[in-house]
């Protein structure tokens, strides 16, 4: 297991967002976390990243990282594509990408930047434009490119398809599969249950902050009852969300 | 005569610019109006004055004064901004004001309430250029101020730390997610901001040959005005605003009435702000939307 989470709890004041969740991401695999809005999926990712106080244990590549600040987790090889992209609109496209490499001190940063530009020619054309001029889909590419600039071993992705056109959703998921084929392990939170189950190997279902099912995605996809009970029938949801 | 006054105004503007940029850094990056900056300015002047008077060589006196202002600024950060995330946003504002009063009165107790002569090692070195008297320490200070502001600009615009700072300015949460050590980086803002104010205080002593416990208040008020006039969060705007305010101040004293200085300076500030609410170099697009 590259990432192991045991009995993780996140509370905001009196509100419990995640209560006692355990899960794992195998080296080189994609795992997905499913659940309705407010099930605690984002809080779970934020806690793994070290962005919100949590109790319980998080192990990454064999090391207990629960007490590490976010910066140390990034340096160790965890990167995140947050919900809503959250690119830095006051920085240029290139500066956004360089921010992804912030904890790095090696000499490969410029070469990695070129690789990202090869992958996303749209970003290369606008490298000196502010992030605010990009379309939603381009912003998602920038957010993914920014995360890749950290050279992560594990990528946490929070709703990467949200608000994207069908074309871009397809492109993002192709990209996810390609990055995974290159050896990147991914923990994917996704409202689009069908796509997530098709893409990931292992799945976890959250409901009201607790993990109510954990299995390989083929098994989860077959259990209609579970899907209907916990995901509000999202099993049959259309491929595309958003405008 | 006019050229002489213009030059005097620009020299004074260099000092205002340092203070204005000091304010600009904390408000532009951290969205925090640091009321303690006038005290840091004053500490730069008073500590270097005390060290010079005690016979410390000029370089040592400057280093000691900057060490004092840097430490004071980090102390203020410890006890104000760090509490911002967990408290009502007005509390740190008030505690930075508390630090201003505390530092000023600490110096008042040790130094007394009278202005003290500044034992400048350069005294009144000056050269005559046709009928202009050019003060060498003032000119050096003015150039130093411009170089420091330019360095701040380069730091913010072109360095990795600068990118980290601008990320924090936009979103501390995203900066943290990307691996920026936000706490450490915020401290560096306070350090740079405090050092700029401290250098401003030393240059004030060298230029005007006296320091006092309350020397920061008037200068800081002009510095804040310069920042607003130039456009909040814009380093060059702060410089432009500082030079304009200082030149108006000097011209008013020379040609009108020294009692009327602040009426003219702040009156003009109000007029400009009324027509250009985002300042002279503020965000043009947003200004256009407003008009």
Automatic annotation (TrEMBL), chain A:
- A GO biological-process term: L-amino acid transport
* PROSITE patterns named among the record's database cross-references: ABC_TRANSPORTER_1, ABC_TRANSPORTER_2
* One Pfam family it belongs to: ABC_tran
Q: Tell me, what is one Gene Ontology molecular-function annotation carried by this entry?
A: ATP hydrolysis activity
Q: Which domain of life is it from?
A: Bacteria
Name of the protein:
ABC transporter ATP-binding protein
SUPFAM superfamilies in the cross-refs: P-loop containing nucleoside triphosphate hydrolases (SSF52540)
Which UniProt key words apply to this protein? Amino-acid transport, ATP-binding, Nucleotide-binding, Transport
Q: Keyword Transport: yes or no?
A: yes
**Boundaries of every ABC transporter domain copy:** 3-233
Q: Which PANTHER family match?
A: HIGH-AFFINITY BRANCHED-CHAIN AMINO ACID TRANSPORT ATP-BINDING PROTEIN LIVF (PTHR43820)
> What InterPro entries does UniProt report for this protein, alphabetically?
AAA+_ATPase, ABC_transporter-like_ATP-bd, ABC_transporter-like_CS, BCAA_Transport_ATP-bd_LivF, P-loop_NTPase
Question: Which family would the database say this protein is a member of?
Answer: Belongs to the ABC transporter superfamily.
Q: Does the record carry Transferase as a key word?
A: no
